[in-house]
Design goal:
Number of helices: 7
Shape: elongated
Number of strands: 8
Strand content: 25-35%
Helix content: 25-40%
Radius of gyration: 21 Å
Length: 214
């Protein structure tokens, strides 16, 4: 990933927050024929496991990914955060001298590491309980795995295989107008807010609240 210094995000808390808020990762692995495979899989971060943390999830047993990675293979998990188009008309400098162009702001985390498959029913049950508890916690009446009949749960577990990515390196890129002067940043944030869209409002908060380039 091209990463100018002023767009680099290294704070573990910020990286982990994005990974937890946007758990649907693009998981990239080699396909064995000189190409790549990309699977879109919700991954749960356990930041306490190992020096860099671990990502866990599961795939359908019919998915060839788990057989391909076996006991370990290099992999990249990409977590996409907020993004938005930035119009140059929002910059005061554009109205002064016209020297401005459009761009696209975004936040993203790349997790590099070794991926392995785990074909173990007890491990999978523990993972499913963890995933369900995490994603159901905001509901008034949370669903739990125990709500389903035991034989049905056993059948569903038999249809999936666990995967675990042991993180070796985390890279974060927050391209949120840090390279613009303060007046242009304020103009971009205001322009985003005026669009009246949730994605634009989220990026406005990043533009307005992210630390200035040092």
């Amino acid at each position: 990933m091209y990463l100018p210094r002023h767009f680099e995000e290294t704070r573990p808390a910020a990286l982990h927050d994005l990974m937890r808020a946007r758990p649907l990762a693009t998981l990239v692995t080699a396909d064995g024929a000189g190409g790549f495979e990309a699977n879109h899989i919700p991954l749960h971060l356990d930041a306490t496991a190992g020096p860099q943390g671990v990502l866990r999830g599961h795939v359908a047993r019919a998915n060839p990914l788990w057989r391909a990675v076996g006991e370990g293979a290099p992999a990249l998990a990409i977590f996409q955060g907020d993004d938005a188009y930035i119009s140059p008309s929002w910059y005061p400098s554009k109205h002064e001298h016209g020297k401005a162009v459009p761009t696209w702001n975004y936040a993203v985390v790349h997790a590099h590491g070794s991926l392995r498959a785990i074909d173990d029913a007890a491990w999978l049950r523990g993972l499913l309980d963890t995933l369900t508890d995490a994603h159901e916690s905001g509901f008034a009446r949370p669903w739990s795995v125990a709500d389903a009949p035991v034989d049905f749960v056993d059948k569903m577990i038999a249809a999936v295989v666990g995967i675990e990515l042991r993180i070796e390196r985390l890279t974060g890129k927050w391209k949120v107008s840090q390279n613009q002067p303060a007046a242009n940043r304020a103009g971009a944030a205001q322009g985003l807010r005026e669009r009246g869209r949730p994605d634009a409002a989220a990026m406005a908060r990043l533009v307005a609240g992210y630390p200035d380039e040092t």
